[in-house]
Amino acid sequence: MPIRRFGCHKSLVSRSETPKLSYGYSKMNVSRNGYRVFSANSSTASAQLAKKITERLGVELGKAVVYQEGNAETRVDVKESVRGQDIFIIQTIPRDVNTAIMELLIMAYALKTSCAKNIIGVIPYFPYSKQCKMRKRGSIVCKLLASMLAKAGLTHIITMDLHQKEIQGFFSFPVDNLRASPFLIQYIQEEIPDYRNAVIVAKSPSAAKRAQSYSERLRLGLAVLHGAAHNLESSMGDGPTSPPPARFNAGHTGLELPLMMAKEKPPITVVGDVGGRIAIIVDDIIDDVQEFVAAAEILKERGAYKIYIMATHGLLSAEAPRLIEESAIDEVVVTNTVPHEVQKLQCPKIKTVDVSMILAEAIRRIHNGESMAYLFRNIAVDD
User: pTM of the predicted model, to two decimals?
Assistant: First the structure.
């Protein structure tokens, strides 16, 4: 007697044949995949990057409401179950940095108390990253923020081009510091005519390593700006460079230490040939653009006929759009790690490069337990 089979055998798919989540697949039920993607931004403009990432992943953005109450307190309401799942929180940092930080902390803590398995923060621009060193009687705010994120419940973060790579040591959980240089290099090759006649410029000796990495990959020359238009630190009356107060007798004679001369930067000079070439200044953050404007004027005087600025994070605070528009800078190219649509309306010279592809791929690989080495191929430790 033949064995009767129930159902259609064609509908049976083995585990090995189950399609993995990748670009190009239609939207899938994220609950079956075991992870969800949320946006911690209360503003629509800041959530654009989250929408691009979820579109590339083929998933829907998690249902959550983030808003400010009448007394300016931040409230987060998660509208779906997250128990036992990997949760990715995408948080771009707008001008209101402190509000964005509170949104991220409160959402992370809400997900932690809702029994999420892992909470991974996708923070392309890590705020307070410039305050990563002790200065005078200040504090290392970046270390404080890292501790707050861990306390709120984050177990992993994905970021991009940290201001100093040593910041990763502030965290008690894994940090994946992605690079935007492949996208910016691709922009140079495709959008800058005659880029072979360009020279990569570091606006200070401390930025020389980044500029050297670009020049070696593009096979271009390298120039370094040295000095400053004026020394801001020399005008500060208090701090390590200030003279000690008048000596007073406290009952014992102090040691006579050698006198340390204060630093004084010379006027800006260019080390390298930029005459008759395109000058491309590279950096990680462009916020206060006065240094870039001064550098562009010097490069113009030295014979550069076009000046581009390439940076990962375009904060462009205060009067940056107006200063760029009135300067000798021809174009400022930044990524969409930070929302800057308003600045682009004020200054047509600002261009944007989309990096949502690498962020989406990082999310996919972390959830599937795949190696992240592919995202760091041909990237040296010093890059």
Answer: 0.83
